[in-house]
Write a structure and sequence with these properties.
- By secondary structure, the chain is an all-alpha fold.
- The protein is 64% helix and 0% strand.
């Protein structure tokens, strides 16, 4: 005997049974976040293949993968607000480069300084974005190419990368019918 969930939604023979429609509706956000994140990473990886742009260092860093999770899988999270992503990454990049230059070596002290000061600064500026901690750490433990960039690391790869991530998130998070992202650009005010 068929249960109400197994019956078609309408008399039209082309409609899906209710259970299949529910499954599809449940998975739609999963597919959308996968497509959106794929587009962002594709753009970054293709830019990385342009010799002039990626001459000194890669345009993609591991922290961008974590940012993509927040921006595309849970865009309503406070950690995925544009202010948090932009300010969090920028501050953490500056702090990471400063920690490396202050200590002058990749060691426990430079890593501890980078991550702990980055966390405290994000908390004080209300720009907490967990991948920012990785941005700070990458400035310390990154390749010689990253170290040679100095504060240029803040603009490329970090600045270019977050601009692309935010741009793709703005477009793809607003395409679905119910999409409205971001809810607000700044963490304060209306």
């Amino acid at each position: 005997m068929e249960t109400p969930e197994d019956q078609p939604i309408s008399a039209d023979a082309t409609t899906l049974p209710l259970t299949e429609k529910r499954r599809f509706e449940r998975l739609k956000p999963v597919y959308w976040s996968m497509i959106s994140s794929s587009l962002a990473i594709l753009i970054l990886s293709q830019l990385n293949n342009i010799p002039y742009l990626a001459a000194d260092a890669p345009l993609i860093i591991g922290a961008f993968g974590a940012s993509a999770v927040l921006l595309f899988a849970c865009p309503q999270s406070p950690y995925a607000h544009p202010y948090n992503v932009i300010v969090g990454h920028f501050l953490c990049a500056i702090i990471g480069v400063s920690a490396f230059q202050l200590v002058g070596d990749v060691n426990s002290l430079s890593m501890i300084l980078a991550v702990s000061v980055a966390i405290g600064t994000m908390q004080l500026t209300h720009s907490l974005h967990p991948p920012g901690g990785a941005t700070a750490l990458i400035a310390v433990i990154g390749s010689e190419q990253i170290h040679q960039l100095g504060y240029g690391y803040v603009l490329s790869p970090v600045g270019i990368g977050i601009a692309i991530l935010i741009g793709v998130a703005y477009v793809t998070n607003n395409l679905p019918k119910k999409g409205k992202w971001p809810e607000k650009w700044l963490p304060f005010g209306k």
